[in-house]
Structures are given as structure tokens and as C-alpha cells.
């Protein structure tokens, strides 16, 4: 007579704890989707380093732009179109100095060519200082201070990237301009993402005449050339508005233009998801449409939205730069990367003073970092990787 074997709890525990060769750790299998995405993202070194650079830019410049700037963005000096200054360790006689220093520069006019020449004054050295005193500012809007990361001894003038057509420090203005461009990119993409998800979600869920009307509106907006459309919207902004009002107006303009592509993608996603059992069950319980979108549909393609967000921010930054460069975006005294490039519109001016193009370097760095982060997130969110 064959007796049946009765498994005790000890037997079951021993069976669970057996490690099968070639199998993955059960703890890794039990990880959430976001943890798996983050683990794969960290293996993408270029994307990870780009994310670190972006975090440092946002923390450093958005919160502490005044601390890193040498001069105020509105300070005007006598020397116009001054070339970038050289930080020296050797003086004009070849002697080495431990502390870095600079020589002051003056501009003289050549009597034969009537061109400005820059002459260094070797009679006096001005040493650089860390945590030097300069113009006063509100640190994080909490308290007043005049401490800056870098400065120079009294009597010296430090222009790391030279001066512009009015004698203003380009390096300091880049610090302030980058802050505005970074914030306007985030704000614009956030608004356009909300518009794209909500309008595209309604189009995909409701269907019928509502879907047709929304799709025709999207087609009309996408068929209009972007630059004339930007100019038309920017012309509506009154000249009497304050820089802050213009800032929000430009953000809304960029958001109105940027939501159409995302709305179409969201619509296609919702068309495939709305037939799922959990969506049908939610409809049977008379759940509101916005609740279904927020609670059931958006989490199913949140990884795609995250990738789209990182790739759309540089587009917003480039759009603001183009608008301001053409003179139909942000206007002085607001300082953005596009406003800084207004002084480089003349080809002859750029050929004589190429350092006016230094803001382009910051635009390139930001856009490349966002694109690398977007590529890393796209690869990490791919379930077949």
C-alpha cells in the first residue's frame, strides 16, 4: 500500500530556498517597474553623466546664479567688446606665481585703421580671490549678501569671457541667462504635457465627433509654419507689459504650439488601452473620465511620457532662444540665452568679436545633455532590453 507524502511547512520552506543555477535573484524579479528602469538607466554612463550635469546646472544656476556671477547683469563698464581675459600664473617677465592673477586691459584706437586694440597693463598684478565680495543680492530670496565664488583684488576688473557691445560682463550674463532658459523650458513642457495628455486622452476615449474636431484642430496647428505663428502670438503681447508678464506670455505661446504632437501619440495609446478590461470595469462603475485617465491609463505609459518630457525640454529651450534672437521673445532687461545672442546677429560683428557666441556653447551643452538623458531613459524603459 502506497502512502501519500504529506508536506510540512519545513519542506515547503526548503523548497523555496533552493537556488537553481542560471536563475535570477527573486528579489530582482520582484522589483517595481521604476526600480528596473533606474537600474538599467544607471548602466548608461553617458546618460547618467548628462543627468548629473543637468542637476548641477539647475541647482547651481537656478538657485545660486548671483553667487557664481562676478558682476551684476546690468553693470556697464567703459571697455566695450573686451576679449576674454587670461588667468595667469606667469608674469610678463616669465616669473611663476602660486596665486593666479590678471592684468587690467585698456582699449586704444589705431590712428591709421580706426580700429580698437586691446593693451594689457603690466604695471600691476591683481590676484584672484575665492568667496570675494561684490554686488549685493538676495540669496534664495532669504537674506542679503555680497559674497561671490570668484573675485579679484580691489582695482582689478575680471571679465572671464569678455564684454559685449555695452561693456557688460558676458560670463555673468550667461549665468543669469541660463537660469531663465532652463526654467522656461521646464515650465513650457509641463504646460504642454498637461494639454497633450488631457486633450489627447479625451480624443482617444470619447471618439466620434469630439475626436474628429480635436484631430482637425491639431492638423491645422501643425500645418502652420512655426516662425510666423510665433511672430503672430508674440505680436499680441503689449509693449507695456513687465518682463515677468512677457516671460509667462512666451511660456504660454511655446506651450500652445508644443502640445499637438504629444496629443496624437496619447490618442493612439488610449485607443489601444480603452478596450482593456480594467477600463471597461471603470466605465461600468460610472468613473469620471479624468479619473480613468489619471488612475488607469497614464500609469501604463508613464515611461513614454518621461522620455518625451526629456526630449521636449531642449526643443522648448531652442524655441525660446530663436524667438528672443529674432527680437519677438523675451526683451531686455530680462536676460536669457536668446537675448544674449541678439548682439551676434551681425556677421561682421561676430567675425570681429567671436566671444559674443559663447552663449551658444551653453545652449549646446544643455540640449545635448537632455538628448542623452532621453536616449538613456528610452533604452531603460524598453521592456525588451
Characterize the structure shown.
The protein is an alpha+beta fold. The chain has two domains: 85-158, no CATH class; 172-381, MetI-like fold (Orthogonal Bundle), CATH 1.10.3720.10. The chain is 56% helix and 11% strand. It has a four-stranded antiparallel β-sheet with strand order 1-2-5-6. Strand 3 and strand 4 form a beta hairpin. The chain is elongated and about 85 Å long. The two termini are 54 Å apart. The relative contact order is 0.12. Mean pLDDT is 79; it is low at 1-30.
Which helices and strands, and how do they pair?
Elements (H helix, E strand, L loop, with lengths): L8 H9 L8 H4 L3 H10 L2 H24 L19 E3 L5 E7 L2 E5 L6 E5 L5 E14 L3 E10 L17 H37 L1 H16 L2 H11 L6 H16 L1 H14 L3 H8 L4 H9 L4 H24 L11 H4 L6 H6 L5 H24 L4
Antiparallel strand pairs: 1-2, 2-5, 3-4, 5-6
Amino acid at each position: 500500500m502506497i502512502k501519500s507524502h504529506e508536506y510540512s511547512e519545513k519542506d515547503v520552506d526548503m523548497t523555496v530556498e533552493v537556488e537553481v543555477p542560471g536563475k535570477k535573484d527573486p528579489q530582482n524579479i520582484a522589483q517595481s517597474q521604476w526600480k528596473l528602469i533606474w537600474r538599467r538607466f544607471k548602466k548608461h554612463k553617458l546618460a547618467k553623466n548628462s543627468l548629473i550635469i543637468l542637476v548641477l546646472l539647475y541647482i547651481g544656476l537656478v538657485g545660486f546664479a548671483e553667487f557664481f556671477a562676478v558682476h551684476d547683469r546690468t553693470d556697464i563698464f567703459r571697455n566695450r567688446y573686451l576679449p576674454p581675459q587670461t588667468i595667469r600664473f606667469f608674469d610678463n617677465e616669465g616669473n611663476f606665481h602660486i596665486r593666479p592673477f590678471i592684468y587690467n586691459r585698456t582699449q586704444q584706437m589705431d590712428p591709421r585703421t580706426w580700429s580698437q586694440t586691446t593693451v594689457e597693463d603690466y604695471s600691476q598684478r591683481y590676484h584672484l580671490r575665492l568667496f570675494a565680495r561684490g554686488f549685493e543680492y538676495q540669496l534664495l530670496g532669504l537674506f542679503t549678501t555680497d559674497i561671490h565664488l570668484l573675485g579679484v583684488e580691489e582695482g582689478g576688473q575680471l571679465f572671464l569671457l569678455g564684454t559685449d557691445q555695452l561693456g557688460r560682463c558676458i560670463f555673468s550674463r550667461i549665468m543669469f541667462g541660463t537660469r531663465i532658459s532652463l526654467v522656461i523650458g521646464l515650465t513650457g513642457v509641463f504646460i504642454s504635457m498637461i494639454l497633450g495628455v488631457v486633450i489627447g486622452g479625451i480624443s482617444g476615449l470619447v471618439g466620434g465627433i469630439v475626436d474628429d474636431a480635436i484631430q482637425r484642430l491639431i492638423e491645422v496647428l501643425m500645418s502652420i509654419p512655426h516662425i510666423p505663428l510665433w511672430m503672430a502670438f508674440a505680436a499680441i503681447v503689449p509693449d507695456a507689459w513687465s518682463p515677468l508678464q512677457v516671460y509667462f506670455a512666451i511660456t504660454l505661446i511655446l506651450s500652445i504650439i508644443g502640445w499637438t504632437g504629444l496629443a496624437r501619440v496619447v490618442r493612439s495609446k488610449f485607443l489601444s488601452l480603452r478596450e482593456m478590461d480594467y477600463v471597461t470595469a471603470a466605465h461600468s462603475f460610472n468613473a469620471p473620465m479624468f479619473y480613468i485617465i489619471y488612475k488607469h491609463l497614464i500609469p501604463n505609459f508613464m515611461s513614454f511620457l518621461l522620455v518625451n518630457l526629456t526630449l521636449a525640454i531642449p526643443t522648448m529651450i531652442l524655441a525660446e532662444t530663436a524667438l528672443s534672437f529674432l527680437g519677438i521673445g523675451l526683451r531686455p532687461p530680462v536676460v536669457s540665452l536668446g537675448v544674449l545672442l541678439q548682439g551676434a546677429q551681425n556677421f561682421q560683428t561676430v567675425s570681429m568679436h567671436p566671444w559674443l557666441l559663447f552663449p551658444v556653447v551653453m545652449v549646446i551643452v544643455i540640449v545635448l545633455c537632455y538628448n542623452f538623458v532621453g536616449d538613456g531613459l528610452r533604452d531603460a524603459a524598453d521592456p525588451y532590453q
